[in-house]
Request: fold
Amino acid sequence: MAALGWLTPRRRSATARSVLAGEAAAEAARKTSHELELEREAAAAAAAPAEPEFPVAGDVRAAAFFDLDNTVMQGAAIFHFGRGLYKRKFFQRRELARFAWQQAWFRLAGVEDPEHMQDARESALSIVKGHRVSELMSIGEEIYDEYMADRIWPGTRALAQAHLDAGQKVWLVTAAPVETATIIARRLGLTGALGTVAESVDGVYTGKLVGEPLHGPAKAEAVRALAAAEGLDLARCAAYSDSHNDIPMLSLVGHPYAINPDTKLRRYAKERDWRLRDYRTGRKAAKVGIPAAAGVGALAGGTAAALALHRRRR
Reply:
């Protein structure tokens, strides 16, 4: 057994050099541990959102304002409404062809043409003149199911739901008739809607507007008036739109969003570091003169819709 003694570790007393080595190792370990902790904190900070959580849960002095056409819904509500009225024989095929062309142009260009929108409003007013408000509201519910429900942008819908989940009110703000906007807001579970008000006497449409269409600066005035009535702090509110025409409304709030923006709004938003979201599956060409495939499809689809409805009627 003595021959195996060399395998047994010998007990040695600590020397000054071994003490120094041990202390140096302990110090290095502490330093390395501290450096690793700093790296973990830096990584966590880099992974965290660059901006504070929004919307802020429980902030009842904040609200959200959403444009409707091409922001919440693909296309223009008034054109879908016109298509539904044609199906119910409120007007003739010539008017439908005009509605179909305007809708196709709107989807192709992705912007609101003032002349088209004015023509559509005048057509709608002449069509509903003499009809009861209650009748059009009932028909509007049916038209929503037929032509609008499947055209809601899921991404924008999720943004609105985030505000609702945070306990905030959410309003549509649109040039569409307030009756149509109210139906859409109710179906989406939103708070309500600001829209163009058509004059009625004893519950019957006169064919005139109260004031002017809720468009451009008028939207901003409507939001400002509602915020004052509701006790909202506009600096804590959010607004969402696709159109440069809504820059006055977007500029009112502390949290403006450009949704599916047209060229002018995209440029304006980037210059001011506004948030941008684009939920279109096919990005539209930079210029209207160079249509994307999705735009060509919309043009063909609008024409086909007019022809299909004409055949069905015959």
In short: The longest helix spans residues 16-47. DSSP finds eleven helices and eight strands in the chain. The mean pLDDT is 78.
